[in-house]
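[Discussion] Sanity-checking designs against the backbone

I'm trying to build intuition for which residues belong where. Below is a C-alpha coordinate string of 204 positions. I'd appreciate it if someone posts a full sequence so I can compare it with mine line by line.
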Protein backbone atom coordinates (compact mmCIF):
# COMPACT_ATOMS: atom_id res chain seq x y z
CA UNK A 1 0.00 0.00 0.00
CA UNK A 2 1.07 3.58 -0.55
CA UNK A 3 1.74 6.34 1.96
CA UNK A 4 -1.61 7.84 0.95
CA UNK A 5 -3.45 4.53 1.50
CA UNK A 6 -1.87 4.20 4.94
CA UNK A 7 -2.62 7.80 5.90
CA UNK A 8 -6.23 7.62 4.77
CA UNK A 9 -6.70 4.42 6.77
CA UNK A 10 -5.20 6.06 9.88
CA UNK A 11 -7.58 8.99 9.48
CA UNK A 12 -10.53 6.66 8.90
CA UNK A 13 -9.93 4.72 12.13
CA UNK A 14 -9.35 7.94 14.10
CA UNK A 15 -5.70 7.37 15.02
CA UNK A 16 -4.35 9.77 17.63
CA UNK A 17 -0.80 9.44 16.30
CA UNK A 18 0.38 8.42 12.84
CA UNK A 19 3.91 7.03 12.62
CA UNK A 20 5.58 7.46 9.25
CA UNK A 21 6.18 4.31 7.24
CA UNK A 22 9.70 2.99 7.74
CA UNK A 23 11.92 0.13 6.61
CA UNK A 24 12.86 -1.94 9.71
CA UNK A 25 16.56 -2.50 9.20
CA UNK A 26 16.82 -5.09 11.97
CA UNK A 27 14.72 -7.30 9.70
CA UNK A 28 15.62 -6.09 6.22
CA UNK A 29 19.39 -5.51 6.44
CA UNK A 30 20.14 -9.18 7.24
CA UNK A 31 18.08 -9.97 4.12
CA UNK A 32 20.26 -7.78 1.93
CA UNK A 33 18.98 -4.20 2.21
CA UNK A 34 21.93 -1.78 2.57
CA UNK A 35 21.74 0.31 5.74
CA UNK A 36 22.11 3.63 3.92
CA UNK A 37 19.37 2.76 1.46
CA UNK A 38 17.02 1.73 4.26
CA UNK A 39 17.62 5.01 6.08
CA UNK A 40 17.15 7.04 2.89
CA UNK A 41 13.92 5.28 1.92
CA UNK A 42 12.57 5.60 5.46
CA UNK A 43 13.08 9.36 5.35
CA UNK A 44 11.58 9.56 1.84
CA UNK A 45 8.44 7.82 3.10
CA UNK A 46 8.35 10.18 6.07
CA UNK A 47 8.67 13.31 3.96
CA UNK A 48 5.98 12.11 1.56
CA UNK A 49 3.56 11.22 4.34
CA UNK A 50 4.13 14.56 6.05
CA UNK A 51 3.34 16.41 2.80
CA UNK A 52 0.14 14.39 2.41
CA UNK A 53 -0.77 14.96 6.05
CA UNK A 54 -0.39 18.70 5.59
CA UNK A 55 -2.78 18.62 2.64
CA UNK A 56 -5.30 16.63 4.70
CA UNK A 57 -4.92 18.78 7.82
CA UNK A 58 -3.55 16.08 10.14
CA UNK A 59 0.16 16.89 10.18
CA UNK A 60 -0.02 17.51 13.94
CA UNK A 61 -0.63 13.77 14.39
CA UNK A 62 2.45 12.63 12.46
CA UNK A 63 5.32 10.91 14.30
CA UNK A 64 8.50 10.76 12.16
CA UNK A 65 10.33 7.45 12.61
CA UNK A 66 14.13 7.18 12.85
CA UNK A 67 15.93 4.10 11.56
CA UNK A 68 19.34 2.53 12.06
CA UNK A 69 20.85 -0.90 12.48
CA UNK A 70 23.84 -1.37 14.76
CA UNK A 71 25.48 2.00 15.45
CA UNK A 72 23.91 5.07 17.11
CA UNK A 73 25.29 7.28 14.34
CA UNK A 74 22.89 5.63 11.90
CA UNK A 75 19.81 6.90 13.75
CA UNK A 76 21.46 10.34 13.85
CA UNK A 77 22.05 10.11 10.09
CA UNK A 78 18.33 9.46 9.75
CA UNK A 79 17.59 12.53 11.87
CA UNK A 80 19.95 14.70 9.81
CA UNK A 81 18.26 13.59 6.59
CA UNK A 82 14.88 14.53 8.03
CA UNK A 83 16.25 17.95 9.02
CA UNK A 84 17.54 18.52 5.48
CA UNK A 85 13.90 18.21 4.36
CA UNK A 86 12.60 20.59 7.01
CA UNK A 87 11.42 17.85 9.36
CA UNK A 88 12.86 19.17 12.62
CA UNK A 89 12.32 18.60 16.36
CA UNK A 90 11.06 22.18 16.59
CA UNK A 91 8.28 21.28 14.16
CA UNK A 92 7.53 17.74 15.34
CA UNK A 93 7.40 17.06 19.07
CA UNK A 94 6.95 13.27 18.94
CA UNK A 95 9.45 10.92 17.25
CA UNK A 96 9.60 7.16 16.81
CA UNK A 97 12.66 4.90 17.04
CA UNK A 98 12.73 1.72 14.98
CA UNK A 99 14.93 -1.39 14.76
CA UNK A 100 15.32 -1.87 18.50
CA UNK A 101 13.28 -5.06 18.93
CA UNK A 102 15.89 -7.45 17.50
CA UNK A 103 18.75 -6.10 19.62
CA UNK A 104 19.86 -8.72 22.12
CA UNK A 105 22.16 -6.44 24.15
CA UNK A 106 20.41 -4.11 26.63
CA UNK A 107 23.61 -2.02 27.01
CA UNK A 108 23.63 -1.45 23.26
CA UNK A 109 19.96 -0.46 23.30
CA UNK A 110 20.79 1.99 26.08
CA UNK A 111 23.66 3.41 24.02
CA UNK A 112 21.41 3.94 20.99
CA UNK A 113 18.53 5.49 22.93
CA UNK A 114 20.74 7.71 25.09
CA UNK A 115 22.44 9.02 21.93
CA UNK A 116 19.07 9.79 20.35
CA UNK A 117 17.84 11.39 23.57
CA UNK A 118 20.88 13.72 23.62
CA UNK A 119 20.16 14.70 20.02
CA UNK A 120 16.45 15.19 20.76
CA UNK A 121 16.33 16.41 24.37
CA UNK A 122 13.01 18.22 24.21
CA UNK A 123 10.74 15.85 22.28
CA UNK A 124 8.80 12.73 23.15
CA UNK A 125 10.35 9.44 22.03
CA UNK A 126 8.38 6.31 21.18
CA UNK A 127 10.23 2.98 20.81
CA UNK A 128 8.84 0.12 18.76
CA UNK A 129 9.24 -3.45 19.98
CA UNK A 130 11.58 -2.93 22.93
CA UNK A 131 12.35 -6.01 25.01
CA UNK A 132 11.61 -6.31 28.72
CA UNK A 133 15.32 -6.49 29.59
CA UNK A 134 16.09 -3.37 27.57
CA UNK A 135 13.11 -1.46 28.96
CA UNK A 136 14.40 -1.94 32.49
CA UNK A 137 17.46 0.19 31.75
CA UNK A 138 15.97 2.74 29.36
CA UNK A 139 12.44 3.62 30.51
CA UNK A 140 13.75 6.95 31.83
CA UNK A 141 14.99 7.86 28.33
CA UNK A 142 11.71 7.29 26.49
CA UNK A 143 8.11 8.43 26.74
CA UNK A 144 6.23 5.48 25.26
CA UNK A 145 6.73 2.03 23.81
CA UNK A 146 4.75 -0.78 22.29
CA UNK A 147 5.36 -4.41 21.50
CA UNK A 148 3.43 -7.47 20.42
CA UNK A 149 6.23 -9.82 21.46
CA UNK A 150 5.04 -10.19 25.03
CA UNK A 151 1.59 -11.34 23.96
CA UNK A 152 2.77 -13.30 20.92
CA UNK A 153 3.57 -16.42 22.92
CA UNK A 154 0.01 -16.61 24.23
CA UNK A 155 -1.08 -17.09 20.65
CA UNK A 156 1.74 -19.42 19.59
CA UNK A 157 2.35 -21.61 22.62
CA UNK A 158 -0.40 -20.84 25.12
CA UNK A 159 2.09 -19.16 27.48
CA UNK A 160 1.00 -16.96 30.36
CA UNK A 161 3.22 -14.36 31.98
CA UNK A 162 2.96 -13.30 35.62
CA UNK A 163 4.89 -10.24 36.77
CA UNK A 164 6.94 -10.64 39.97
CA UNK A 165 8.00 -7.21 41.36
CA UNK A 166 10.49 -8.75 43.79
CA UNK A 167 12.51 -10.16 40.90
CA UNK A 168 11.66 -7.46 38.34
CA UNK A 169 10.85 -10.26 35.93
CA UNK A 170 8.04 -12.29 34.46
CA UNK A 171 7.33 -15.90 35.40
CA UNK A 172 6.31 -17.90 32.34
CA UNK A 173 3.79 -20.71 32.53
CA UNK A 174 2.25 -23.05 29.99
CA UNK A 175 -1.57 -22.83 30.01
CA UNK A 176 -3.83 -25.69 29.10
CA UNK A 177 -5.06 -25.54 25.54
CA UNK A 178 -8.69 -25.33 26.67
CA UNK A 179 -8.21 -21.61 27.30
CA UNK A 180 -9.10 -19.29 24.45
CA UNK A 181 -6.18 -17.46 22.85
CA UNK A 182 -7.89 -14.10 23.33
CA UNK A 183 -8.29 -14.80 27.03
CA UNK A 184 -4.60 -15.67 27.33
CA UNK A 185 -3.56 -12.55 25.45
CA UNK A 186 -5.79 -10.40 27.66
CA UNK A 187 -4.26 -11.98 30.77
CA UNK A 188 -0.77 -11.25 29.47
CA UNK A 189 -1.69 -7.66 28.63
CA UNK A 190 -2.96 -7.09 32.17
CA UNK A 191 0.34 -8.39 33.54
CA UNK A 192 2.24 -6.10 31.18
CA UNK A 193 0.27 -3.14 32.53
CA UNK A 194 1.16 -4.25 36.06
CA UNK A 195 4.81 -4.49 35.03
CA UNK A 196 4.72 -1.02 33.52
CA UNK A 197 3.21 0.54 36.63
CA UNK A 198 5.73 -1.23 38.86
CA UNK A 199 8.83 -0.72 36.74
CA UNK A 200 8.25 2.66 35.14
CA UNK A 201 5.69 4.66 37.12
CA UNK A 202 7.12 3.95 40.59
CA UNK A 203 10.62 4.94 39.51
CA UNK A 204 9.77 8.30 37.97
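Best answer:
Here's mine. Compare freely.
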Amino acid sequence: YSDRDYLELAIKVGANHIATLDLPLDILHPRGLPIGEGIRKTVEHGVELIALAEDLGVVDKVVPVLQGFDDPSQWLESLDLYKSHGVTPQRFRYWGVGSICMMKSPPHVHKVLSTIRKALPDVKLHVFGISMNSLRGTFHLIDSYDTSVWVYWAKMDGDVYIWRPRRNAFMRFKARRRYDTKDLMEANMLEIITMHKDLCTKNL
